[in-house]
Specification:
- The chain has 2 domains: 2-204 and 383-389, Ribosomal Protein S5, domain 2; 209-380, Alpha-Beta Plaits (2-Layer Sandwich).
- The longest helix is centred in the last third of the chain and has 23 residues, at 269-291.
- The chain is 40% helix and 21% strand.
- α3 (131-146) crosses α5 and α8 (269-291) packs antiparallel against α9 (295-311).
- The strands form 2 sheets. Strands 1, 2, 3, 4, 5, 6, 7 and 12 form an 8-stranded mixed sheet that branches. The chain has a 4-stranded antiparallel sheet with strand order 9-10-8-11.
- By secondary structure, it is α+β, with helices and mostly antiparallel strands.
- The structure holds alpha-D-galactopyranose.
- Alpha-D-galactopyranose binds at residues 33, 37-38, 40-41, 172-173, 175-176, 340-341.
């Protein structure tokens, strides 16, 4: 079959010779979370979509027990190791996400042979589009197929998530891996991180485009700042549980209880909980608005979510705020917010298709004027989940 996907072609370019007959290629997307910011590890609902960009890997089996890992994003930095050397926190380098996924697959599914794994991604890295979950997920998906295990999306989500929390050491929730494994084209996922229930709402590409714009700022200290937010929420929960023994996560704290008890929380814990309480309410009414096809209200909730992340959760940056304001000033933009954990990265906006030309001109121009930096608009429709790709 002819190679039609440029990402597959780029991945193939890493190989010194044409792929051997046993080699196989797999793909997993990235994601943008439209609502439910920082709610996954607080037990709330998240509303993500998968993007049509992501990570491709070519897996070539070896006759020994070595792993040779190469990435187009890190030319000249191949990583070679024995399968037995896979150990949590072994490395902080680029291969940690990939290694973590292999480690989890081996821990749960048993032994496998050595591989050459060649990786290429067309997702901007460390920009809030889940490039790391995309690589963890594609490896878990690939190994499930390779080992022919009888698994489920839920188990693959758990393994890909454990790769990040155990091997890499980021205390993230299950949003990213869930968004990737459960994705369906032209659909928004409504996923309840406590009940683990899921619902799909139509997000029709004839009515709306997901526009992603890069703030071009490095996410410095993002991991430590993210882990600090998680720790603050855990601490706040501990304090609130002394008053409300029945609660198991911050999602259980409704507005009336928060208003009564907020005096018991020192800053910044009070602001963090205020964000969670408001965001839980927003995901509820925004999902309901979308059930009725009301994109304007949904977009409005995204803007409110952004303001809450800026003013209460303190995870935005001046460049991100500028992009959001420029985006929502364009007629036909329903709403915009930072996507991902924050501390830099990208915004995601919902834009009417007939407004995209104007949006793509006006937003980068406003950004250039204020920051002196160039950026561009990437247009997506909600994509499907991981897949095997035929090699030529
Ligand atoms: C990162 C984490 C997710 C989630 C988001 C914020 O993407 O990996 O688990 O917490 O931030 O919503």
């Amino acid at each position: 079959m002819a190679v039609t996907h440029s990402l597959l072609e780029r991945t193939l370019s890493l190989l010194e010779q044409p792929p051997v007959a046993e080699a196989r290629a797999f793909f997993a997307p990235g994601r943008a979370n439209l609502l439910g910011a920082h709610l996954d590890y607080n037990g709330g609902c998240v509303l993500p979509v998968a993007l049509s960009k992501g990570t491709c890997v070519i897996m070539t089996p070896r006759s020994d027990r070595r792993l040779r890992l190469r990435s187009t994003q890190f030319p000249g930095q191949p990583v070679e190791l024995e399968i037995d050397e896979l150990t949590p926190r072994r490395t902080t380098g680029w291969s940690a996400y990939l290694e973590g996924a292999l480690y989890e697959c081996r821990r749960v599914w048993g032994e496998f042979q050595g591989f050459n794994i060649d990786v290429c991604s067309d997702l901007p890295m460390a920009k809030g589009l889940s490039s790391s979950a995309s690589i963890e997920s594609v490896i878990v998906f690939a190994m499930a197929h390779w080992m022919d295990v009888n698994t489920t999306p839920d188990e693959m989500i758990r393994l890909a998530h454990a790769a990040e929390t155990e091997y890499v050491g980021v205390r993230c929730g299950i949003l990213d891996q869930t968004a990737i494994f459960l994705a369906k084209p032209d659909s928004l996922l409504v996923f309840d991180c406590t009940e683990l229930t899921r619902e799909y709402l139509p997000l029709n590409s004839e009515e709306v485009v997901i526009a992603v714009v890069d703030s071009c700022t490095a996410r410095e200290l993002a991991t430590s700042a993210f882990n600090q937010r998680v720790a603050e929420c855990t601490q706040a929960l501990g304090i609130l549980q002394t008053h409300l023994p029945g609660i198991t996560c911050l999602r259980d704290v409704r507005r009336a209880s928060f208003e009564t008890l907020q005096g018991s929380l020192p800053e910044p814990l009070r602001s963090r909980v205020a964000h969670v309480v408001g965001e839980v309410e927003r995901t509820e009414w925004a999902a309901d608005a979308l059930r009725h096809g009301d994109l304007a209200s949904f977009g409005n909730a995204m803007v409110q979510a952004h303001h809450s992340m800026r003013d209460l959760y303190h995870v935005s940056t001046p460049e991100i705020d500028l992009l959001v304001e420029a985006a929502i000033a364009v007629p036909g933009c329903y709403g915009a917010r930072l996507t991902g954990a924050g501390f830099g990265g990208c915004i995601a906006a919902l834009v009417r298709p007939d407004a995209m030309a104007e949006f793509s001109k006006v937003v980068p121009a406003a950004f250039l004027l204020d920051t002196g930096r160039q950026t561009e608009v990437m247009a997506f429709r909600p994509a499907g989940g991981p897949a095997e790709w035929q090699l030529p």
